[in-house]
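User: I'm curious what two different proteins look like when written out as structure tokens. Can you demonstrate?

Assistant: Sure. I'll show them one after the other, since each token string lines up with its own sequence. Here's the first protein:
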Amino acid sequence: MPLPENNVPWPPPALAPQLADMAIDDAWYSGDKARLRRVYATEGLGNGRNERDSSGRPWRFWERPRPMGRRDNRLHVPLAADIAAKSAALLFSEPPKFTFEDDATKTRWDEITGEGGLNSTLREGAEVATALGGIALRATWNADLAKRPLITAVHADGVVPEWAFGVMTGITLWRELLREGDRVLRHLERHEPGKILHALFDGTSANLGIRVPLTEHPGTSDIAANLGEDGESIATGVTGLTCVYIPNMRPNRKYRSSMLGRSDWQDDGIRDLFMSLDETYTSWMRDIRLAKARLVAPSGYLNSEGLGKGVSFDDDREIWSPVNAGPTSNEGLTMVQFGIRVAEHEQSWRAFSRKAVESCGYSAQSFGLGDTTAITATEVISQERASMITRDQKGGYWLPGLADLADVVLQLDRVLGFSSVTPARPNIEFGDSVSEDPKTLAESIELLARAQAASTETKVRLRWPDWDDTRVKEETDRILKETGAMVADPAMTGAEGPGAPGFGDPAGGEEAD
């Protein structure tokens, strides 16, 4: 499929409903109250007193118009942003482990990803994918910036992928370079097997407009110098696409035919919980605001400031004119202070928060809504089982995409002359999102040692699960040498149990009957 023709609707009409839905998800993710008001805008007088829309339906919290001439006291709780950040942390709090059969390939991959900060890009991608339903990761290059391929993330509201039988066959990335009134300048970057196409369109907010030279904007002028003979594409020299798309979760419940994936809070019920949480916090703050102590003063206590200037009250004055009233008549100054419904509001926000995170697929414990007593890593995993299941489900979508990306990055690296390693598709393992408590691990290893149930090598592997065989052997030999047990350790002799050296009498065996 080539680049779009001139003067076609944009974004593509088939994606318009999903993009509108993404705008709502994005507003919750951003935490911007102005954007929440905008995406939930309804018809009304906008005077803050009208409680129903034009159809007679009561407005929900963020649908109410902003009060005219008064401060908007509505508060927003960034729970959606917290959920997105937690999801990314569960996936990439520790970098995934890439393994290759060729050591040289592994070394070069570590150089590329170490210099480029791949794990930071993955965390960004995972967080945005949680909010918008997916993320695109592309491989590109600029030899003036770095002697390696560059990996960047493109958000789901700026991609138009195409699939055939579940396999992505092409993807168009687009971005707005200029918006002046209704005029919009868009850059389209289309990835196809073996090439990348570029075009610049001058149109409107709803129409792609006409194609103009890439040199018309400084953001694309450098690309023009690298185009091929056709004037629109750059050959990559690799097999496959130089861009992958990774969905957050599937299926998309609202648009079941879509392959874009779904946001964690795409369901309207979850958004309503977010809205109820904001309303609860706003009500709580209103209680605090109204509970400020106030004095009700008789008119005789007020000082006139002159004709037309009103009156004032001196709250530092210590002596007042006598009041002809009994001491218990309450005819002097009266203090008014309302109560704050702390328990009711706290119970409400905890209930709304807990239900929202559980509906998104996470354990309440992951957000501090469960038991906060100090527990071991094993107990954490048990209590956060729902979060771990969601993490594994999302990881299932990330693994094939990352493997494809690594393969094409290494191909590009060789084609561009940055290295001569053999490209390969790696095996990938996600790191543990919950690290074992060092004290608990040490106690476990000590118990195994007392029971003579594990060799020194096994204990080293338990302590350092990320070490390779060479490093494990070096550490094992070092420990055995320091303890004088090079001969006595069963792992070094291949013998185990009674009769093995070091198990039983010093001679290395038991006496015969």
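Here's a second, unrelated protein for contrast:
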Amino acid sequence: MAGRIRASDIEEVKRRTNLAELVGDYVTLKNAGADSMKGLCPFHDERSPSFHVRPVLGYFHCFGCGESGDAFTFLQRMDHLTFTETVERLAARAHYVLTYEEGSFTREDGPNRARLLAANQVAAAFFIEQLASEEAAVAREFLAGRGFDAAACERFGVGYGPRGWDGMTGHLRAKGYTPQELVQSGLASEGQRGAYDRFRGRIVWPIRDTSGQTLGFGARKLYDDDNGPKYLNTPETPVYHKSQVLYGLDLAKKAISRGKRAVVVEGYTDVMACHLAGVDTAVATCGTAFGKDHIAVLRRIMGDDSAAEVVFTFDPDEAGQKAALRAFAEEKRFTAQTYVAVAPEGLDPSDLRQHRGDEAVRELFTRKVPLFEFALRQSIARFDLNSVEGRVSALREAAPIIAEIKDPSIRPGYARELARMLGVELGEVQHAVRGAEAAKRGQQGRPGAGQQSGQQRAAGPQVGYGARQTAGPQRPAAQNGADRFGPRPEAGAPTDPWQGGGDTLGDPPTARRIGLSTLRNAPTTRLERDALMAMLQQPEGVGTDLMHQAVTAQVWDPELRVVRDAMAAALPALGAPGWLEAVLGATPETHQGLIRELAMVPIPERRVEHLVAYARGVVVSLLDRDLVELKRELLARHQRIGDPSDAAARRIQQQLAALEAARRSLREE
């Protein structure tokens, strides 16, 4: 087995990795200032973006949950990789060849994710190759009959699994993969005689993540003597989790991000039909119902724009009705508006394209109706509205749907619509809706039900010396003159939920999380905070001379004093790669979260060309404060002497003159 990756190669991979592009494969980022981008955190559920990325610095930080790190950390946590697998993945992404040193290094126990992902890639190529074989004529005929030619199959990576028991396993074993790896990847099943092909005699679709990496497969049976299910998917594996993937998202993510619209269909061929018809925002679940994890994936791509749209397609049968109600149950997790599109005669997008053409598919999504309206109609459809019992049961079923509508201004209108559909008095419907709302409030009032979620945490604070301080979004209003960071909590007081979960880079929990929100509310503290922030983020811009002077400046806040001392200890690393790591290495664990926040908060200067001027200016202000204080002391001493001709008085006058010259020099800097 290969040895340890050479350290210089690891640094080179990190240097070549664009953190914004890497994160952009998972999260839609927006500009938040010079060298600063933000989006919804992929590590916790939130409504206001608190996840910040600094591409030049090469770091990310979430002010909601506290997650921080570099490109390696991000990919490790997103895809659950070991460090070695992460470096290998990023090296392949950057087309960089790694060098391994000899040694006794071995990987962690358990399945090797990089090997499993590579096996899926090899299998995908094998299936594509097999689609051109003589045996696959029936598969090509099936696809052609549904309007999918060779070019369409190539675009979506469609393939064919041969009918034999070991065609694919034999091919991968010849490539060096073990039977155990094939079973762990879900490509093979384990039998009494060993591993055998899982996808036999089937059309196969690759299921990829947003970066295009194949995680698993979905397959449809073709032959009558196949006793398996119509659709067969990769089982849960170390790399494939069906509740967290959407088929077609690798192809649709850019269009979804750009247009703020996603179309959720029910099958692989539906996704193909939509994309080929020009609806390039279509995705589908993979053998499971649409759930909260899928919502989180889409929200990270779309962002939380209230004008965004998610359009579902459901079959008009009983299964489709249940799917619609399940989707509505999770609808409140979306900030986007949700709709349903149902094709004429109950045709799905694939059948609609096959029988009526591309234009019919495009028109389907222009006839969308709000999801709650569709759910309302579906909820009462199974009751006999000609009987009193049926109307009462239908009202009992439909009232909670109206109570769950996010926009309270349209609830009265749908209450009237429900009264019309049921043929009952409006007052009866309003009474039932109020009862449903009261029941919902009662559930929310139970112990644990009202705990603040990550969605309620505020975005990362925007700060700056000389800037007017305003409260961060969704944070409770500050009192007693506190700025957006809030007053220091009293000893033993519970931690403000807005502050998040503290440092999460493996640090043990502390009694009190030290961060920007715990700093004192005072002009002196704000100046110290902004100067240290500039020194962390723009050390080259501040300059070596000013940096050496600034780490000796007086810092009154005890927490920020720790930061200043850490930077003083890390000065030998100034100007070299790894400045932030050096500062963190010199910082006690209790204050490392504060360091990361100071390094990630956007500097309040949106123009890159003015960053250096801002950074130097705020550091000069910190140093000038020391000189002003010294001047005040000298003037007081001079006044106490009384006699201006005294030798001591003359020395003080000389010192004052030198001090003023130093201040002028600083201002010129």
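A detail about the second structure: The chain is about 45% helix and 10% strand.
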